[in-house]
Every structure is written in structure tokens, then in C-alpha cells.
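A quick aside before the break. I want you to see a complete sequence-to-structure record at least once, exactly as it would be stored in a machine-readable document. Don't worry about memorizing anything.
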Amino acid sequence: MDDVPHDLASLGVFLLVTVFLGGGAAWMTGSGIARGWRPFWQCALALLLVAAVARFLHYALFEQPLLSGAGFALDAIVIVLIGAAGYRATRARQMTTQYRWLYERTGPLTWRARDA
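That is the input. The structure line, written in C-alpha cells, reads:
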């Protein structure tokens, strides 16, 4: 990576570790917690742990700072957003398939009560 500009290399590391690896883990975490019918706050706590793991991977594999507040904040924002989308998509599917007489889907992440 010596011939690649530092900013481009950092972007590649961010995309690999945070978006692809961390985002995949976040989606599965959010979906799994929703399938267990647990509340979102439990999902948010688990996603912060996923963000901490992503920060550690940045440090261990690519020699980036471990205790970077800005780095953790960016990782956490991206990971929580992806995990929340996974949670909400799963919950929308659950509500509209298990309670199809009560709810109808209005989008990939939303549902509403059926008209009587």
C-alpha cells in the first residue's frame, strides 16, 4: 500500500472493515434481535459492541488508532444505521406475515394497520 495515497487507502479500509464486515454483522445482529421479538434498545447496545469490534479490526489489521473517538463515532453511526435497518426490515416482515389480518406493508421498513 506504499504506492496508494493515504486517503484512498483509508477509504478502502473503512469500506472493507466498517461497511462490509461491520455492516454485515450489524444487519445480522439487528435481524436476529428482531426475530427474537426483543426491543430495539437491546439491538442498539449490541450494535455498539459491533462498532467496538470494527474499531479493533481497524487497529489490529491496519494499524489505525484504537482509541480514536472520531473513528469510533463514524463506525458506530454507520453500523447502528445498518443494524437498525436490518431490525426494522425484519420487524416489518414479522408484523405483516404473522399478523396479516391486522397489518399491511407500506414499504420495506414500514407497516400500518389494515382498514376495518
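Two observations worth writing down. The chain has a mean pLDDT of 93. The chain has three helices and two strands. We'll return to this after the break.
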